[in-house]
Write a structure and sequence with these properties.
The complex is a heterodimer of chains A (195) and B (150). With 195 residues, chain A is α/β, with parallel strands linked by helices. Helices cover 36% and strands 15% of the residues of chain A. Classes of the chains: A alpha/beta (195), B alpha+beta (150). The interface between A and B is medium-sized, with 35 and 30 residues.
Chain lengths: 195, 150
């Protein structure tokens, strides 16, 4: 993989910093990192974490008709220690938010989060005191899926997009940097990665 | 003999079920290559439609915004003039924004629209990486101009 050098502006500190952040692997292990990313992307083990009705569609996507197993994500794990990707499926209440954060912290790096459905992504129709207005207030979300609930093929599309993101991403150390970069510049398209 | 009855026979009959199933059609939809046929009343991505003349149907009345239970539609209307005509009515929408993440695809906007401007079509591939990308502007929602027949 070629080494990428990007100029980013970090917005999360009080004083904006302009500088170069390098992502991509080191010289010796670049090909290995590419291989590891391929392996990571093609065996994403989701965490069984259904919060509401979106979980029904999440379960449906593993069934025979849509078959998430074709992309290596059939092994839903009931423990965060064995999971790679957390699908926040449903509305996240404020009472549930600390639990979600704890489970996210218990997941081993590298980890990804899919925010599934309108409620998890933005609060949706529940604009009230009880619901967190977007799960990204609690955990860093990698990909958002709109819909109420998203159909299984919409979720599979999100999985494919997440895989594309992992395949072009750096190693786990660079993942946080990458998240900061992508939050500013936006993720690259597949054409840009292949170029 | 007991061995055949207890072991071989159940195995054979078990594989018989498998063999019978082999000729069934496969149920899996090979999604990224093959997309399943959506139901007729499926509601997904919004489209702002045009008349055949190319004029926009939307007249900027904000009834969709009023009907929206998630309050995800924002409409800003402006007067049409004879020099700049966007819709056949008096007014048109200068800004028309939908927050796709808040939207629950209930179709109330489609029902409320008096001119049939906003319709929910069947494009479900909406997942994206950033929350900002989900504010769909009028340019993104508007149908392309119809081809002018010679």
């Amino acid at each position: 993989m070629p080494k990428r050098v990007e100029t980013v502006v970090l917005h999360d500190s009080s004083t904006p910093v302009i500088g170069n952040v390098q992502t991509g692997g080191n010289v010796i292990l670049t090909s290995l990192e590419y291989l590891i990313n391929q392996a990571r992307a093609n065996s994403l083990w989701p965490l069984t974490f259904g919060l509401a009705c979106c979980a029904i569609e999440m379960m449906g996507s593993v069934g025979a008709r849509f078959d998430l197993a074709r992309f290596g994500s059939e092994a839903f794990r009931a423990t965060p220690r064995q999971a790679d990707v957390m699908i926040i499926a449903g509305r996240l209440s404020k009472k549930m938010a600390p639990v979600l954060r704890q489970i996210y912290d218990q997941m081993p790096e590298p980890k990804w989060v899919i925010s599934m459905g309108a409620c998890a992504s933005s609060g949706g129709v529940y604009n009230n005191y009880a619901i967190v207005q977007g799960a990204d207030q609690v955990v860093p979300v990698d990909i958002y899926v709109p819909g109420c609930p998203p159909s299984p093929d919409a979720l599979i599309y999100a999985f494919l997009k997440l895989q594309a993101k992992i395949k072009r991403g750096g190693n786990s150390k660079n993942l946080k940097t990458l998240r900061i970069i992508e939050s500013v510049t936006g993720p690259r398209t597949l054409e840009e990665v292949n170029a | 003999m007991q061995l055949v009855k207890d072991v071989v026979k159940p195995i054979v009959s078990g594989f018989g079920i498998t063999a019978k199933r082999l000729k069934h059609d496969k149920v899996t939809i090979m999604y990224p290559e093959v997309k399943r046929e959506q139901y007729t009343r499926t509601r997904w991505r919004h489209v702002l439609t045009r008349y055949d003349s190319g004029l926009e149907r939307c007249i900027g009345c904000s009834l969709c915004a009023g009907a929206c239970p998630a309050r995800c539609i924002y409409v800003e209307a402006h007067e049409n003039t004879d020099q700049e005509r966007y819709s056949p009515g008096e007014r048109y929408a200068t800004r028309y924004e939908i927050n796709m993440l808040r939207c629950i695809f209930c179709g109330f906007c489609q029902e409320a629209c008096p001119t049939g401007a906003i319709v929910l079509r069947k494009d479900f591939e909406l997942a994206n990486y950033k929350r900002e990308d989900f504010i769909y502007t009028k340019e993104m929602l508007l149908e392309p101009m119809p081809l002018i027949k010679e």
